[in-house]
Design brief:
This protein has 387 residues and is α/β, with parallel strands linked by helices. It has 3 domains: 1-81 and 275-305, NAD(P)-binding Rossmann-like Domain (Rossmann fold, 3-Layer(aba) Sandwich); 83-267, Rossmann fold (3-Layer(aba) Sandwich), CATH 3.40.50.720; 313-387, ACT domain (Alpha-Beta Plaits, 2-Layer Sandwich). Helices cover 32% and strands 20% of the residues. The model has no long low-confidence stretch (mean pLDDT 98). The protein binds nicotinamide-adenine-dinucleotide and (2R)-2-hydroxypentanedioic acid. The site of nicotinamide-adenine-dinucleotide has 34 residues, from helix 3 and helix 6. Pathway: Amino-acid biosynthesis; L-serine biosynthesis; L-serine from 3-phospho-D-glycerate: step 1/3. Catalyzes the reversible oxidation of 3-phospho-D-glycerate to 3-phosphonooxypyruvate, the first step of the phosphorylated L-serine biosynthesis pathway. Also catalyzes the reversible oxidation of 2-hydroxyglutarate to 2-oxoglutarate. This is D-3-phosphoglycerate dehydrogenase. Belongs to the D-isomer specific 2-hydroxyacid dehydrogenase family.
């Protein structure tokens, strides 16, 4: 039985994919597999028997990735599974920032008892007039799963789209409309665009990237949309930019003591991925990733270990090894297996930064004493008999 614990609500269509070999009632302390959305895991204990964490979503800044890698815990996310939901919210955000639909709706609610509301409407409505998206310049910072969908949708709405992503993947580039202007210096986005939307992960290198220096380059009346993470924007500086009129509206999906109630901000309660479709997609992908890792040792869509996929094991046994990316680990493993009379029928060895992962399909069951010898090799973090 494999113990599974969910730290957040995970859609049942995903959880239903676990077979009877999984115990869904496990506590966090006893879990071998954890499913999580936004729960903050940085201060949580990581148990020795924890094998994997799957983030049903894109952002993994709530998970201590290095600490997990060091403990041989493979962390997965679900790339692209909620991208359409966020794209649709970004379009809504740009529209809400362009037309005062929120103010207009509030006016109607406040005047609901006025018998002459229809007449009063025609006088009052000029206070809520806005501007169109068509023909405006949109800067998209980060052209991954979400950014590329936003860029393409904005092209379809008649916007002039500028895209910036120095690390753009080949796949993302293939999916991007050729009408998107490729920007190599993000400052050009700040200078040129009427709307700017950000879709990059929260990393040390991206925190505060939209800051006072960026606002100083912008035109008066720029609209900023942030459905990525609050830390990407210097929110003290954006408060000042809203007061000065440099920024006309700040739409953010992340309420915090600085943004909640901020004049000129439209603050949403982290709803970007909150559609039934996105929640289902994320849950299904996350559970499939966990099952593939636990049952086959395969790693697909990890954010702290390399991809490594040998399919379903057809040999007698399979051993999975999380280890440091240092010389001679593989030769030491093969020597120990060879000395034990175990033949390796197939193997894979992949690395990612400081960490590596290896799978060995072997011709006989390996006893515990051999596994203990493998585990004692310097640089080996975790050894698991998958089959
Ligand atoms: N509001 C929500 O509910 C919600 C939902 C999903 C994702 N998100 C956030 O959005 C982020 C992006 O999601 P995604 O699915 O598009 O991820 P992704 O990994 O597919 O795309 C991120 C892109 O950012 C690019 N990038 C990294 N550093 C950059 C930089 N300094 N400048 C420009 N580009 C840079 C990468 O090359 C990549 O193409 C997530 O990390 C998450 O924080 C929020
Ligand atoms: O799980 C959620 O609701 C939010 C997910 C989102 O922030 C993400 O990074 O994928």
């Amino acid at each position: 039985m494999v113990n599974v614990h969910c730290l957040n609500n995970i859609a049942s269509v995903g959880l239903d994919l676990f077979s009877d070999d999984y115990n869904m009632e496990s506590s966090y302390e006893d879990a071998q597999a954890v499913l999580v959305r936004s729960a903050k895991m940085h201060d949580m204990e990581l148990n020795d028997h924890l094998l994997a964490i799957a983030r049903a979503g894109a952002g993994v800044n709530n998970i201590p990735l290095d600490k997990c890698a060091e403990a041989g815990i493979v962390v997965f996310n679900t790339p692209g599974a909620n991208a359409n939901a966020v794209k649709e919210q970004v379009l809504a955000a740009m529209l809400l920032a362009s037309r005062d639909l929120i103010g207009g709706n509030q006016w109607v609610a406040e005047n609901k008892d006025n018998a002459d509301i229809a007449k009063a409407t025609e006088k009052a409505k000029k206070a809520f007039a806005g501007q169109e998206l068509k023909g405006k310049k949109l800067g998209v910072i980060g052209l991954g799963a979400i950014g590329q969908l936003v860029a393409n949708a904005a092209i379809a709405l008649g916007m002039d789209v500028y895209g910036y992503d120095p690390y753009l993947s080949v796949n993302a580039a293939w999916n991007l409309s050729s009408k998107v202007t490729h920007i190599v210096n993000v400052e050009d986005i700040y200078k040129e665009c009427n709307y700017i939307t950000i879709h990059v992960p929260a990393l040390d290198s991206t925190k505060g990237m939209i800051n006072k220096a960026a606002f100083d380059l912008m035109q008066d009346g720029t609209i900023i949309v942030n459905c990525a993470r609050d830390v990407l924007v210097d929110e003290t500086a954006i408060g000042e930019a809203l007061k000065s009129g440099r920024v006309k509206k700040y739409v953010t999906d992340f309420p915090n003591p600085t943004t909640a109630g901020m004049e000129g901000a439209i603050v949403l309660p982290h709803l970007g991925a909150s559609t039934a479709e996105a929640e289902d997609n994320c849950a299904v992908m996350a559970v499939k990733e966990l099952r593939n890792y636990i049952e086959n040792g395969n790693i697909i869509n990890s954010v702290n270990y390399p991809a490594c996929d040998m399919g379903v094991c057809t040999a007698t046994g399979r051993i999975a090894v999380c280890h440091k990316n240092v010389p001679a680990v593989i030769s030491k493993i093969t020597t120990i297996l060879g000395d034990a009379g175990v033949n390796i029928e197939e193997m894979a060895n992949k690395s990612r930064g400081d960490y590596a992962y290896s799978l060995f399909d072997v011709d006989k069951n390996v006893d515990d004493s051999v596994i203990d010898k493998l585990a004692s090799i310097e640089g080996i973090i975790k050894v698991r008999v998958v089959k």
